[in-house]
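Worked Example 4.2. Consider the chain below.
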Amino acid sequence: MSRETDEEIESQAEKAQKATPGGVEESGGPRRDRWRRQYREFTAPVRTGMSQAREWYGSLPWWANALVIVGLIAAAAAVPFILNATLGTGAGYWESIGVKIGIAALLALGLNVVVGFAGLLDLGYIAFFAIGAYTYAIFTGAAHFNIERFANQSKTFPLPEWHMYMWLGFFVALAAAIASGIILGAPTLRLRGDYLAIVTLGFGEIVRITANNLDSFTNGAQGINQIPAPAISIGGLHYQFQGSFVSNPYYWMILAVVVVWIFLLRRVNTGRVGRAWAAIREDEVAAAAMGVPTVRMKLGAFAMGAAVASFGGVIYASWVGFISPDSFKLFGSEISSVIILAMVVIGGMGGFAGPIVGAAIIVFLPEKIRSLGDSRYLVFGIVLVLVMILRPQGLIPSKRRARELTGGELHEQTVYEARQEAH
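Applying the procedure from the previous section yields the following structure tokens:
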């Protein structure tokens, strides 16, 4: 057999590229590659700076790393004070936006466990958010108050009041969401891909429709209002969260929950469970063949994600003071399943900073361009499409996820592609 020259190999690779759908001859292919090259050149200083910061942080001793983390947490906690000092009377609005970003970031971090770490497509994640909110509303007596008031409109009933035992409502909602996640996951997690996505989508709609029709527990479509705000009363210490849309206490509460969750999740992700999730995400069949208990590990991911969503639901219900089935849709509400998934994908799956950045962008950008009216959603959609075209792995993906999307089996570079890049 005669040996093929480099020119013959290149010619064959070029023909294969032209004959392949999505190859170089497909409309928009070279143009998209040119946009990506220009984008990479434009963002090179930013990526270089981030890489240098990562290397600098990695070279520090453990105590210096701890000081950096404490400094970042302190800077985040000081945001309400900075807003009050710089914006004056307009600070309240942006403080409420900060609370929305915090709730969205908490939900994105929870969904990131399911989608980013375990590789499971969950389209019904908003259901666990709703379970947490409704469990808290029922536990505090707000649901009973609304049911009685609507049934006997001629009577007057005392408003629900906060009691210290109601702090247990956080853990009751946590237990209810975890149980729901196990009930959903146990019979369905043997499914994969699109089939699992359809099942989770159905679960999300079941929860919303049940809340809409279960008048005797959730007050149906009328919703639940007058949900009491938390308070702290220990000895001589008395602190009231003050009710609906008073943002500062809720901002600090969410910040504390996010910090604790990131700490716990880092510990889990770097251990045996995290390695099992990575194996399941990359090849579930191979993971099962190597002895990884795939169903149990996927069930754990669902339960952890549900737990975080329930905390977000409790904080949301106590902050807003009103919930209804329309607050927990697949799409069309401020916080929906599709929006949460978009936060994870745009920010970068499999990491910690990515979902937070994605949540901040998706919540902040429409508010910043609110002056455009309904056209702001067009601008917002264009921005999201451009991000996905130019940065398909997300803005700040984990190293492992970035390699999966840009190297290895997911993108095998041909000789022709290498020669084209060289020129």
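The CA atoms of residues 88 and 369 lie 21 Å apart. The beta strands are 224-225, 231-234, 237-240, 322-323. Compare this with Example 4.1 before moving on.
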